[in-house]
Amino acid sequence: MSTFTFWSLDFKEQLKLTKPRMSLILRQIKHAEKRLFPRNEAFDFDQELKKRNAELIAVLECIEPSSVPMVAAYAVFVHTPPLALLHKLCVLERYRRRGIAAQMLSVHHQSLEHRGCGKVQLWVDEQRIAAKHLYENLGFKVVGRLENYYG
């Protein structure tokens, strides 16, 4: 039986985490990023996670306590209280339609509120219908549109 673990990594925690474990998780995330997103949307984790206000969160699947955790989903937030920017959200294909993204965002929103970020902002491509529905179901509202954001 699999268990899912919520994992958060901000700049300060990166310094504490053992390099092999962090490398394994980041390697999985980078691989997923290259595979699932067009080149112009791919995120440069090496640069972005060096920023002091950046935070990577992930949902990890552990089949057994001693097994290597597998990344099920990840998100990157940038904090500038009172606002947090959801910069990236991805649920890997085999984990989709299980409510993982909604649960991850709900849990993390509570954490953001405790840190003074009561508002979360994001952008979503008009063509990503499933993502738009997720955000709408979580209570996000469309406040504007940008033409050719990825252009």
What labels would you give this structure?
151 residues; alpha+beta; 5 helices; globular
DSSP strand tally: 5
Question: What is the structural class?
Answer: alpha+beta
Using only C-alpha atoms, the radius of gyration works out to 15 Å
As laid out across the biggest beta sheet, the strand order is 1-2-3-4-5
Distance between the termini: 43 Å
Apparent shape: globular
Percent strand equals: 25-35%
The number of helical segments is: 5
Poorly predicted regions: none
Describe this structure in words.
The chain is of the alpha+beta class and 151 residues long. Helices cover 34% and strands 27% of the residues. The chain is built from five helices and five strands. The protein has helices spanning 11-16, 19-36, 45-48, 100-114, 129-137; strands at 3-10, 54-62, 70-80, 83-91, 119-122. The N and C termini lie far apart (43 Å). The model has no long low-confidence stretch (mean pLDDT 83).
Q: What is this entry, summarized?
A:
With 151 residues, this protein is α+β, with helices and mostly antiparallel strands. Helices cover 34% and strands 27% of the residues.
List the helices and strands and how they pair.
Elements: E1 3-10, H1 11-16, H2 19-36, H3 45-48, E2 54-62, E3 70-80, E4 83-91, H4 100-114, E5 119-122, H5 129-137
Parallel strand pairs: 4-5
Antiparallel strand pairs: 1-2, 2-3, 3-4
